What we know:
Blueprint: E1 31-39, E2 42-47, E3 52-58, E4 72-77, E5 87-92, E6 98-101, E7 111-115, E8 119-125, H1 133-146, E9 149-155, H2 163-169, E10 175-178, H3 186-192, E11 196-200, H4 207-214, E12 240-243, E13 249-252, H5 266-269, H6 274-279, H7 297-303, H8 309-323
Parallel strand pairs: 3-5, 8-9, 8-11, 9-10, 11-13
Antiparallel strand pairs: 1-2, 1-4, 2-3, 4-5, 6-7, 12-13
Helix pairs in contact: 1-8
Amino acid sequence: MSRYDEEAKYDRPKRRTRPRTKDRPTYDDAVTGFVITRDRGRYTTWVGEGDRVVTAMKARQLGRKGVIVGDRVKLDGDATGDEGTLARIVEVLPRTTLLRRSADDDDPVERPLVANADQLVIVVSVANPEPRTRLIDRFLVAAYDAGMRPLLCLTKTDLADPEPLLSTYRPLGVESVATQQGGNLDDLDEQLRDRTSVMVGHSGVGKSTLVNALVPGTNRAIGVVNDNTGRGRHTSTSALLLRLPKGGWIVDTPGIRSFGLAHVQPDQLIHAFADLAAETTNCPRACGHSESDPGCALDEAVTEGRIEAERVASFRRLLASREGRPDPA
């Protein structure tokens, strides 16, 4: 029979590919890691009780899901931490908190900064550079939105009296500690112990100086403040999570000159203040709780003496900070 005979029949070759399955790897042998920094697609993680450092990359199946400092992750592959080894991050465990910001108040894109932290340490110098209350307010809004405890850490208190700044935030119930260069850090140590804290602040306020003192041997770069502009130079270029000698963790972040809050809904901010939220049950529908909202029940509560006027004014200042533009760089 001719190979070209029309009567000839040829069987279709059998497919030799493996059948598709809906089963997915379980990664039962994966170990849990704690992301401490990221650099060009490589993640440095603590494994176990911090007894070894493992470098990892994000597995393809995670897609566009982000991995950030503070994340607790599942690591597959070589997690020995030996030189030249590389593990894979195959799962990001649920986050308890998420500190985030946007480029500005009109940018819908959120930028996650740190996961699973329970305290936001707002580092502010009382002089050189001068404190920027609008930026502090924005940090506070971000902390309340994330469910984190805010702490004011005042630096360079040997150069100026911190009381005027403290009196601004005392009505909100924000706790504070005061430090000075070369001074005792016991009070700050106590506030950080057994917590996971994130340090944020304007460039030049002394974050890296504090980190170097709290965790000896860290050697974070320290910048200087420009005499003409009063602004600090960015020295920390990436977030870094460090274990504190007396217990707890601290994240040093790059200096921030603006902090967008597009992700924060103003009508949700009131829930961070239980006493104020309780009074707003009698507010008109769609009340924004600002000074310009007629019939806001907060005004009545102040008039009848149930709430201090300074506390309501401080809360409304935070609202105004959310609704305005971020400070210019």
